[in-house]
Amino acid sequence: GDDMPIYQAFTIGRIRVVMTDLRSARSDRTIVGDEQWRWLNGQLQAAASLGEVVLWVNTVPWITAEDRTSDHWGAFAEERMAISTLIDIIGVDVVMLGGDAHMVAIDDGTNSAYGHEPPGIVVFHAGALDRPGSLKGGPYSHGAVPGGGQFGLVEVRDDGTTIELRLTGLDWEGRVLVEHEVAFR
User: Fold this and answer.
1) pLDDT of 133-183, one tens digit each?
2) Backbone φ, ψ for residue 40 (5° rounding)
3) How many angstroms separate the most distant Cα atoms in the chain?
4) In what helix (H) or strand (E) does residue 9 lie, and over which residues does it extend?
5) Rg of the chain's alpha carbons, rounded to an integer?
6) Could you tell me which residues are beta bridge partners of residue 180?
């Protein structure tokens, strides 16, 4: 369409938050679009060169079976493989904050390697908030819990050598539904 993708990045300490728009630039051959692909590549390269961990806000499910008729990464398996390969070659650490699923779910990289030896990208779906629950994609190593009144919390600890992230999916009463910690050096 005529919509221009809206994407941005910002850095807090040694965390680079990269937010992509996977709806506006979509076509039959790409979910990212050429301009945004170049920008994403640059963001990943810059993060790697500065020793930053990338929190990639990805607006559609990443862990999905190949399916040309879907509206998520399964319809763009070659592009997903290309991004996985780029991340692997660059050696940048990425934690994906997944979207378009009304659930909390965590995968530690077991199910997201796409053509590479696990672990792949850590994936965290964080919330239905006030919407009804649904399950999308998967499998997820730490499970998936659909439901409204859920949200995710990302806690970062950086001692200058190691960056630790605690990913927690909670319900509105504060009950922990899924949780995972990951550390990067």
Assistant:
1) 888 999 999 999 999 999 999 999 999 999 999 999 999 999 999 999 999
2) -60, -45
3) 45
4) strand 8-12
5) 16
6) 167
Find all residues with CB under 8 Å of 147, minimum gap 6, and list them.
102, 103, 128, 133, 171
Q: How many residues does the chain have?
A: 185
H or E segment to which residue 16 belongs: strand 15-19
Residues in Cβ contact with 79 at an 8 Å cutoff, skipping those fewer than 6 apart: 30, 31, 32, 73
Q: What is the pTM of this model?
A: 0.93
Q: Nearest CA to 121 among 133, 131, 132, 113?
A: 113
- Is-contact 57 97, C-beta < 8 A? yes
What gap in Å lies between CA 18 and CA 87, rounded to an integer? 14
Name the amino acid, one letter, at 110: T
Weakest mean pLDDT among 2-6, 19-23, 70-74, 169-173: 2-6
What's the whole-number mean pLDDT along residues 119-132?
89
